[in-house]
Amino acid sequence: MGRYDQAEPLSHQALEMRKQLLGENHPDVATSLNNLAFLYKSMERYDQAEPLFQQAFELFKQLLGQEHPHVATSLNNLAFLYNSMGRYDQAEPLYQQALEIRKQLLGHHHPDVATSLNNLAGLYNSMGRYDQAEPLFQQAFELFKQLLGQEHPHVATSLNNLAALYYNQGRYDQAEPLYQQALEIRKQRLGENHPDVATSLNNLAALYKSMERYDQAEPLLVQALEIRKQLLGHDHPHVATSLNNLAFLYDEMGRYDQAEPLYHQALEMRKQLLGENHPDVATSLNNLAFLYKSMGRYDQAEPLYQQALEMIKQLLGHHHPDVATSLNGLANLYDEMGRYDQAEPLYQQALEMRKQLLGHHHPDVASSFNNLALLYYNQGRYDEAEPLYQQALELYKQRLAHHHPLVATSLNNLALLYSSMGRYDEAEPLYQQALEMEKQLLGHDHPHVGTSLNNLAELYRYQGRYDQAEHLYQQALDILEHRLGSNHPNTVTCRENLESLRNDLSQ
Predict the structure, then answer these.
(1) Taking Cα atoms as reference points, which of 416, 422, 401, 502 lies closest to residue 451?
(2) What is the Cα–Cα distance from 454 to 138, expressed in whole angstroms?
């Protein structure tokens, strides 16, 4: 229920009572250590959780031997903590050990083995090692189906995990039916009003948001919020998360007046429930800062980005994937404000941190290449931007397949660079590839298609191909007005481009 302040003293009492009654070295003491560690992990007080998980692990090993199911569970718990902390290199061998112990003790066909497969696959998914994650998720799914039946909640969780992998890879057409199946199983087995149903609604909504099918995402997020309020009360961390999700949707839709109060509610609720210094509070500060940046309220965005960055460093350490994300957010603000000398070192720090923590071939590294390239582009440093855009494109192709929305975005970025350099013959085929890819992946009336049509129209305008430019501008405007509304910033930009072209032609 998120009532951590009440849970913590009870967990401490249970631990002390077991120590007093059973002695320091007893399996039930190890269980209490695990319970308290899980509580701290849920509160993201990782520095307190880690020694407790380690004590429980050592106690189980000492009392039960190295090859015991409880030892495997302890390895799994510690790995789960390291995964949450972004310490992937420490998590991986522990997950692998837990999997091997479970296979040896319980056989290859056991629900706990399926759980271990899921856990290891989830780690690889976080690390961007999608080719290693997929077969493990599939094995876990088949194992759960075989052992527990097609309609079991664990099967729904496996469907959800596999869908999340496909979502991360931009394989939206494969993710959608899996998210829908998971939602239906949960409704059928757990009832319409259950926290896991709310989670499934959120997952499906996130997919639709990424596809910019906003009209389908919004009612799902509203449903999830109402379920959580009804089940958990109006003041709960999960309710704050739902408020944040809905605000993020409105932010992307350009409905800033609806997003702002929701972000504020989520922030205040998290401060009240979790304390002023908590990773979720930092996330809320970042989100509100992003909104203000989108609205051009830079003076309000900057201190929030700075607070979030300092808080994450303090809570998670100076080398954590979330620190790199915060550095990127602040750098992007400075980039938009034209404070390039402040943006560049932050982008570079984020890039180096991601390489070190996630490896040189992670999609987030490609994202950092793109960010730094955009900075150089904005400064007119085209010769420095080009190799970074090319590296980002190749990395996305390598890790996410050749047809992915981020590949299309990278093609657009490189085409825009070539267009600005007057290399129109190189820009045109890239714009056309991006446009065709987005039509194929996202549908012909997707906002990204509208943006790509606008970009290609701009190119034709520079080349003096005005009839072709006007036609594409009009197509783009029709899509953007239909999908985003007349007042969305992207729609306004496209309309202004078309009006400017027509004014030029009429003179």
Answers:
(1) 416
(2) 40
Distance (Å, rounded) from C-alpha 147 to C-alpha 154? 10
205-224 tens-digit pLDDT: 999 998 878 899 999 999 99
- The pLDDT of residue 494 is 95
Stretch 434-452: mean pLDDT: 89
pTM of the model: 0.83
Number of H helices, E strands in the chain: 24, 0
| pLDDT of 2 above 60 | no
Residue 399 is given by DSSP the state H
* Amino acid, single-letter form, for residue 92: E
Using an 8 Å Cβ cutoff, are 221 and 246 in contact? yes
Scan for tokens 């999830």, then name that residue. Answer: 224
Q: In the numeric block, which tokens belong to residue 172?
A: 């939206």
Residues contacting 375, CB < 8 A, separation 6+: 331, 335, 340, 343, 344, 347
What are the CB-based long-range contacts (under 8 Å, 24+) for 389-397?
A: 389/413, 389/414, 389/417, 390/414, 391/366, 392/366, 392/367, 395/361, 395/363, 395/365, 395/366, 395/369, 396/363, 396/366
Cα 408 to Cα 263: distance, rounded to the nearest angstrom: 30
Rg (CA), the chain: 25
Q: What is the DSSP string of 131-161?
A: HHHHHHHHHHHHHHHHHH-TT-HHHHHHHHH
- Give the closest residue to 69 by CA, choosing from 19, 18, 118, 111: 111
Residue 59 phi, psi (nearest 5) = -70, -45
Residues 322/86, Cβ–Cβ less than 8 Å? yes
- Cα–Cα separations (whole angstroms), residue 477 to 53, 88, 191, 262, 449: 56, 45, 43, 30, 11
Phi, psi of 338 (to 5 degrees): 80, 15
**Residues near 85 by Cβ (< 8 Å), separated by ≥ 6?**
46, 316, 317, 320
Residue 438 tokens read as 């987005």
Three-class DSSP labels, 287-333: HHHHHHHHCCCHHHHHHHHHHHHHHHHHHHCCCCHHHHHHHHHHHHH
Cα atoms in the Cβ-side hemisphere of radius 13 Å centred on 133: 23
